[in-house]
Automatic annotation (TrEMBL):
<feature type="domain" description="Knr4/Smi1-like">
    <location>
        <begin position="32"/>
        <end position="152"/>
    </location>
</feature>
<dbReference type="InterPro" id="IPR037883">
    <property type="entry name" value="Knr4/Smi1-like_sf"/>
</dbReference>
<dbReference type="InterPro" id="IPR018958">
    <property type="entry name" value="Knr4/Smi1-like_dom"/>
</dbReference>
<dbReference type="Pfam" id="PF09346">
    <property type="entry name" value="SMI1_KNR4"/>
</dbReference>
<protein>
    <submittedName>
        <fullName>SMI1/KNR4 family protein</fullName>
    </submittedName>
</protein>
Length: 186
């Protein structure tokens, strides 16, 4: 999974998968992407970075179910009263965690959950029912996609215990474009 350079063929695939003329948001342009990165102290992983700069900044067609949200926004069902999102803090997970089965008390779990939901990632969109796709922008999982729900979090990609598919933004979009279910476990 390449996170520092974009392959022109991969960008062409992404452009076609989202049907640039299909009602999506205009691309942000490089100045806006660099300003977002500077404001948050991160560099977006490729090919997502070039995708939002040159192709589209959000699309009503998937992935995910309710469309790809623009870079600086959150899905409509995200909710109010959440802690501030801190993108330059590392995403805390490296493997699947089902917190609904975690025996630790809420005063221990709640700060950890806030980190999972709000640190080191941009939210790509929602499947509904509190299921959010995150692109990790900081930490050991940088460039990977994670599904974060009310019950737990798991990576999308080639890792054992993950949702099946090629890792990263490109693999996530390919999985959707191929008409595969998100929940085909290995």
């Amino acid at each position: 999974m390449e996170t520092e350079r974009v392959d022109p063929d991969d960008l062409a695939f992404l452009r076609g998968a989202f049907g640039v003329d299909g009602g999506g948001q205009p691309a942000l342009g490089w100045d806006a992407v660099r300003a977002f990165e500077a404001e948050h102290g991160i560099v977006l992983p490729e090919p997502y970075r070039t995708f939002v700069a040159e192709v589209t900044d959000g699309s009503p067609s998937g992935p995910p179910e309710y469309g790809l949200v623009p870079l600086a926004t959150l899905p409509a069902d995200w909710g109010n009263g959440r802690p501030e999102r801190v993108l330059n803090r590392p995403f805390p997970l490296t493997e699947t965690w089902v917190w609904e089965d975690d025996p630790r008390p809420g005063d221990v779990l709640d700060p950890l959950l806030d980190e999972v939901f709000d640190h080191g990632s941009v939210v790509l969109g929602t499947e509904g029912c509190g299921m959010y796709w995150h692109l990790i922008v900081n930490g050991p999982q940088r460039g990977h996609i994670w599904l974060v729900t009310g019950e737990g979090a798991m990576p999308f990609g080639s890792d054992p215990g993950s949702l099946d598919g090629e890792p990263g933004f490109l693999g996530w979009v390919r999985h959707w474009a191929d008409g595969k279910s998100w929940f085909d476990m290995r």
